[in-house]
Amino acid sequence: MVLISNRIFGLILFFTFIFTNISFANNGYDLWLQYKKVENKQLLKEYTENIQAIQFFGNSETIKTALKELNIGLSGLFDNQNLFENDSPKNHLLVFGSESQLDTTYLNLIKTELSKVKKDGFVIKQIQLNGNSQIVISAKTDVGVLYGVFRFLRELQINNSLKDINIVDSPKIDVRILNHWDNLDRTVERGYAGFSLWNWHTLPDYIDQRYIDYARANASIGINGTVLTNVNANALILTPQYLEKVKALADVFRPYGIKVYLTARFSAPIEIGGLKTADPLDADVIKWWKDKTAEIYNTIPDFGGFLVKANSEGQPGPQNYGRNHVDGANMMAEALEPFGGIVMWRAFVYSEHDATDRAKQAYSEFVPYDGKFKDNVIVQVKNGAIDFQPREPFHPMFGAMPKTPLMMEFQITQEYLGFSTHLVYLPKLYEEVFETDTYREGKGSTVAKVVDGSLHNKKITGVAGVTNIGNDINWTGHHFLQANWYGFGRLAWNPHLKSEDIADEWIRQTFTNDENFIIPIKKMMIQSRETVVNYMNPYGLHHIFDTGHHYGPGPWVGSLPRPEWNPTYYHKADGFGLGFNRTKTGSNATAQYAPEIAKMYNDISTTPEKDLLWFHHVSWNHKLKNGYTLWDGMALKYQEGVNEVEDMISLWNSMEQYVDSQRFKEVKMMLNIQLKEAKWWRDACLLYFQQFSKQDLPNGVEKSSNSLKEFQSMTFPFAPGR
Ligand code: BDP
């Protein structure tokens, strides 16, 4: 008897174990669209009281998509009550297709709000009609309604009250776009979350569920465009064989309000068109692009346009034919114009033949062309003048081209920020850039105002993010890096949002509404950006990554053929000190900024210490504001970064009760990698720079147990992302 009960007990335990493990297993695939049961009593009460039936008006594919999402969301968040089939009760949630479908009674009740809606914005408002509560979601476009539905679901997920809900929100940016650096063989340049989502081999016949889920996730944060292919482009994507595949993706994305764009290889007329030249002023070349563009629009009527990397890092461009960026961009723009398409022409250019300073080259090449580009060209500028470093001063082009639309390019994938194994919350970086004052039209001329077009009244506006998405089950390799995709979307919608508020929303939707988790984790996320700067590139150091793959430190690299590919070019360590003199006594890159900024950076005493070594060559014994010398202060910063990762680990370990077991374990393992690599950065960089400073490490900085030689001999032939 006893034996049997023990066995039964054992079985029960076994099943409970399996069951709890299953119920707590969360692989992160659902991102921030978890739609977990609402536990907040107040919200449950409000929901039951205010929403007894749901009615939808409109039948476009987008409206059907919104309806489907509302169904998924509400049945996850609340016990399913078949609200969609219930037409008798009094209190409704009403979703109206677009303005034209609004009944005049409703139109009158929300007209003030609707009049404030711009483009694909929306209204969510509670109104009273004949004594009944009606929550109305409406917009001027169907995509606006879809955004309204996602917003409504977000409000519920983050447990905001429904009482007197009255939200009017419109995107501040037109083109909110992901840039996939995905190759046709499915490798991803600088991608660390597996291979490309796009399975070109099985397209167009096989539609992976992931394509749909990708579109859903993007639409939920307002992203409305995607460039499917790498900026280092392959012309094959423009052939009929591939355009069929692109069409299949465009068809999936369309109901979600997402347009597809492609990278256009400048030499495509030669490579796939059989022409002898790609000269943008050649009549055959012009015709080729016109025909090709018409062919694309014939296949994909709402195609977005081209993204072009020209005359940069070996990519072909108009300069190969003695022409300039304007000639190239305008030629393509003319082909796209009849169809409403745009050209996103990248300003990421630098040349090995220009001995001045790489940081100055994009500005020098582009600013003289201000006002020369056609109306459907937008120049895409990286946030800083070098290349997506952990910290860069804002790109001097922002604000310097009042007659040319400039779009922001951020990197979401962490080429220079620890790949996908380091927890770094990037919206903090994006916010820092957006908030910076360019002083181009006096105080308050922030980068955000340049990019949202308000500073110089721009016709097209855009924000691009080089995506961190791959085919890993959780999309981004590390659960917390989903927040960078999310936060990018939110800031592309409105570059004036606060990164802290975005983190709050994201944690609530992705993990829990429990404040015991939210408060400390949000703090950790916000701090994480400074932490990575501390253990990689403190005080304005930059581009000291190991060569090629950019994995880990390589400040010693100095023998690559192109000078500006060498870390030694950027840090300029010598017996005197460290840093790149970009002031008027050096490369004079500071002169590319407005006088107020140039003045601040020209003077070491007014240069913010976070940018010190970006602009100055500073003595090892220079006194920092905290009283330490540069050498001691820098060593202590490296140590601080390591200590902060240790703190992240202890915090995470104390959070186990709030997180499902799978995500808890996976994040924990990642944090341990991050700590190992933070120490690697500290030790390798300090040992290397110590050869120049010839000073001991200050108290409080741990000594490396490896030698510099050991660090220098490490190789990573299969580091991802190349
Ligand atoms: C650099 C990357 C390189 C990209 C290039 C670009 O190392 O792989 O092709 O930027 O943005 O950051 O074009």
TrEMBL record:
User: Which N-terminal stretch is annotated as signal sequence?
Assistant: none
Pinpoint the Glycosyl hydrolase family 67 C-terminal domain residues: 476-701
Spell out the InterPro entries in the cross-references: A-glucoronidase_C_sf (IPR037054), GH (IPR017853), Glyco_hydro_67_aGlcAse (IPR011395), Glyco_hydro_67_aGlcAse_N (IPR005154), Glyco_hydro_67_C (IPR011099), Glyco_hydro_67_cat (IPR011100), Hex-like_dom2 (IPR029018)
Q: Which GO terms describe its cellular component?
A: extracellular region
Q: Which UniProt keywords apply?
A: Carbohydrate metabolism, Glycosidase, Hydrolase, Polysaccharide degradation, Xylan degradation
The EC number of this protein is 3.2.1.131
Q: Which residues form a coiled coil?
A: none
Q: Which family does it belong to?
A: Belongs to the glycosyl hydrolase 67 family.
Assembly:
Homodimer.
Q: What is this protein called?
A: Xylan alpha-1,2-glucuronidase
